[in-house]
Design goal:
Elements (H helix, E strand, L loop, with lengths): L7 H12 L1 H37 L5 E4 L34 H9 L4 E16 L2 E10 L1 H8 L5 E4 L7 E5 H6 L7 E5 L5 E10 L4 H6 E5 H8 L7 E6 L5 H11 L3 E4 H4 L1 H39 L1 H7 L1
Parallel strand pairs: 3-8, 5-7
Antiparallel strand pairs: 1-9, 1-10, 2-3, 2-6, 2-9, 4-7, 5-8, 6-7
Length: about 325
Amino acid sequence: MRRFGLGFEAQVALRFLLEGRMQSLLIVVGVAAGVAVVTYISALISGLQANTLEKTLGAQAHVTVRVADDAVQAAREARPGEQRLARSQPREQRPRSIADWPALMAELQSRPEVAAVSPMVSAAGLGLRGEATQSIALVGVELDRYDRIVQLRRKVVAGTARLGPGEAIVGRELAADLSLAVGDRFTLVTPGNVSEVVRVTALVDLGVRELNRRTVYVPLRSAQSLVGLPGGATSLDLRLFDVWAAAPLAAALQAQLPYEVEGWPQANAQLVSALNAQSISTTIIRAVVAIVVVLGIASVLVVSVVQKQREIGILR
């Protein structure tokens, strides 16, 4: 008669577990400890990777489409017996606009993997206030669109994020270097010797000190006037629903568009290598823990079998 409807094998296993309570407890504790270690390590590495990605991508786009730099055509190679002195000098780079960028922006926005697109005008310049002078990275954006890319409003540490005509948002370190506070005015000067006086509406912390020390956000139209690109945009920034889709999307857009397309993995190659190394380490730790647990259970069972050799011989 079967007890509790169990088969012969189940009855033998149950009796073994009940008779060797200490062995059963050790097996359960070993398996539980192995699962706990694997779960803890996986959660720890995943959390570190997510936090690192959030901090790194919090101040940059997932994919950027920009005009390629001007390049000088290489000189013709000398024919046999011909002697020539040729020197190619790099061309001076100047801001150039993406052709018909509103249409391209609408096309990119229609892609299912793209969450947001923002036009940008970027250029180098100087920030002047009194006798203080600092080199700056001038960034012209439409605040509502750009906020969907990097969530700029969440990074405000003083003031209110607002970009109207004659207004600017400044990095925290740059504000300290120029002795700026919310409501103060300072002068922006671009390489074309075009200047504009702007008022600070907010200070932001972008998470990277170097960015905080040189970034100035102004309205898109103001940047277009300062740089000399009326109605233009030097780049389009994309934010994706899945950050790991950046590399294949950038490769696909590079093959389709006559522009330079860069995904965040290309711009942060060292970070990607570190994340891959962490993933490999996690896999190795999981494998080692699994092997240790299996060996522990096997050793307990082997000892049990050795102890019951007589019973096994009688059964055979």
